[in-house]
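Predicting holo structure, 2-succinylbenzoate bound.
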Amino acid sequence: MRITNIDLFKLKMPLKEIFETSMGVETHREFLLLVAHGDSGLMGLGECTAMDIPCYNYETNDTAWHILETYLIPEILNKEINHPKEFTEQFAWIRGHEMAKATLEGALWDLYAKEKRISLSAALGGKRKKIDVGISIGIEKNLPKLMEDIQRYLEQGYMRLKLKIKPGYDLEPIEAIRRKFGDIPLMADANSAYTMEDLPLFKALDDYGLLMIEQPLAYHDIIDHRKLQNELATPICLDESIHSVEDARKAIELGSCKIINIKVGRVGGLYEAKKIHDLCEERGIPVWCGGMQESGVGRAHNIAITSLNNFTIPGDTSPSDRYWERDIISPAISFSEPGVLSVPEAPGIGYELDYDAVRRYLVESKRYA
Ligand code: OSB
Ligand code: MG
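Done. Tokens:
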């Protein structure tokens, strides 16, 4: 395949509900959309999962734009590419900037699959036709409101509930959820808000039979996580600490986690995500697909990767209407049955870009040719 021009868009979409985590409060999602036009007349879509501020990792949409414009796009335009994995190899010299890389790499995979007339899932080696879906629930200090929300999520069929926690909002809501809803599939995500000084809290949480605790300690740590895992029956799942298959190998070999959250953007793209998936499968570590409140484009990539065998735990891959009044793809992503999404069989990501919606949310755009 050969890419003749690339459109880069910055979009800002209002979230249907305010989303609070230990990192802050969000009302909107700002992100980059990349459209790669091939000489075949087909186009590949990619989404940048960086945030507008560097609170989750060091990247932002603006650093990603800089890396894309300066280093990635000029080296890709009008070059013959046989397989998207060549991209990963070509840009291995660029340290970090995983989300910038994943933006263009994702578009290459979509285009590659469309030119081969196979689904992105099939191109990645996915076999599963349906995926089970979980939901990530923001901090809600009004506990009666939290209970109502959870009741609704359970009725909608979500297969796993993830509660965002932070110091001062942890044991109490978990206790309340267990008391009201019993043994539902429940986990907690701390986004690195704690330290080993909080060991007594984690020991107390250990009694609530959580599926896992996600990233309790520092965002780059795998040493203290190992110490904590050794003290707990509850599995630790790493999110922020894992940026590559090498990070995953080291965390597994140390015993720093028993589960890994794979986010395509955080690890530099679908090829690296697949490598982490394969390693974890070999080592008996289950994985699931994390979300970054993607628009339909990134969400479709997430659905495709989740069709791989070792994605055995429901991910943060909620349908479009969890986040958006109007998504930027058509059709919007929706459950095929409660709590379940069908993996598209159409070529590539299997959804069309809705340019009217893109225009509605547009902040800026630039064409590279
Ligand atoms: O830690 O998984 C996380 C959102 C933004 C940044 C980090 C995280 C999240 C979520 C939301 O948990 C997942 C989603 O619904 O897309
Ligand atoms: Mg997380």
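The two ends are 16 Å apart (CA to CA).
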